[in-house]
């Protein structure tokens, strides 16, 4: 019996695939547990429409990520963070990704996920570049200026 998988099934296939399953397995396990539906023409059409919608949403997310990248990488876009200095003019502590995300929201009005920032902790004054993963295919570079309070 041909079925359309509604979720990943070990040793059978991934969500959205049309697979051949034993009749008894499909009727007694997959369909009652809502892991699959029978591959009727109506269900096949629904799957096609769902995939088309998913592709459209993925494209919109990609375009939004590219627009955000262009906004972050403008020449005048710098996030400024002030830190206290310790002995010898060195910064006291370091700047975390949480602080960078918070200051970006305050200064630029942009929401960034601190978990998607790739950086070492910033432990010196000056301008640093922080890489942000906005999308699997899009990475942006945000300039962060650490100054003395």
From TrEMBL:
Q: Where is the Ribosomal protein L9 domain?
A: 1-46
Where does it sit, as one GO cellular component term? Answer: ribosome
Mention one GO molecular function.
rRNA binding
Which keywords annotate this record?
A: Ribonucleoprotein, Ribosomal protein, RNA-binding, rRNA-binding
Tell me which InterPro entries the record gives: Ribosomal_bL9, Ribosomal_bL9/RNase_H1_N, Ribosomal_bL9_bac/chp, Ribosomal_bL9_C, Ribosomal_bL9_C_sf, Ribosomal_bL9_N, Ribosomal_bL9_N_sf
Q: Which Gene3D superfamilies match?
A: Ribosomal protein L9, C-terminal domain, Ribosomal protein L9, N-terminal domain
Entries under SUPFAM superfamilies matching the protein: L9 N-domain-like, Ribosomal protein L9 C-domain
Q: Name one GO biological process term.
A: translation
> Is-annotated flag, keyword Membrane?
no
Q: Where is the Large ribosomal subunit protein bL9 C-terminal domain?
A: 64-147
Q: Which is an annotated Pfam family here? A: Ribosomal_L9_N
Keyword set includes Ribosomal protein? yes
Matching entries from PANTHER family are given as: 50S RIBOSOMAL PROTEIN L9
Q: Which family does it belong to?
A: Belongs to the bacterial ribosomal protein bL9 family.
Q: Which HAMAP family match?
A: Ribosomal_bL9
Protein task: Binds to the 23S rRNA.
Provide the protein name.
Large ribosomal subunit protein bL9
Q: Which organism is it from?
A: Eubacterium oxidoreducens
- Which gene produces this protein? rplI
């Amino acid at each position: 019996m041909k079925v359309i998988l509604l979720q990943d099934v070990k040793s059978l296939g991934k969500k959205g695939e049309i697979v051949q399953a034993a009749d008894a397995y499909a009727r007694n396990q997959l369909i009652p547990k809502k892991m699959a539906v029978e591959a009727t023409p109506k269900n096949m059409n629904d799957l096609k429409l769902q995939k088309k919608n998913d592709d459209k949403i993925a494209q919109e997310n990609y375009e939004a990520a590219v627009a955000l990248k262009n906004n972050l990488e403008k020449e005048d876009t710098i996030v400024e963070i002030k830190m206290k200095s310790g002995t010898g003019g060195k910064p006291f502590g370091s700047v975390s990704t949480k602080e960078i995300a918070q200051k970006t929201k305050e200064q630029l009005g942009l929401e960034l996920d601190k978990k998607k920032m790739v950086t070492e902790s910033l432990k010196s004054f000056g301008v640093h570049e922080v890489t942000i993963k906005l999308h699997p295919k899009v990475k942006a570079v945000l300039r962060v200026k650490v100054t003395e309070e």
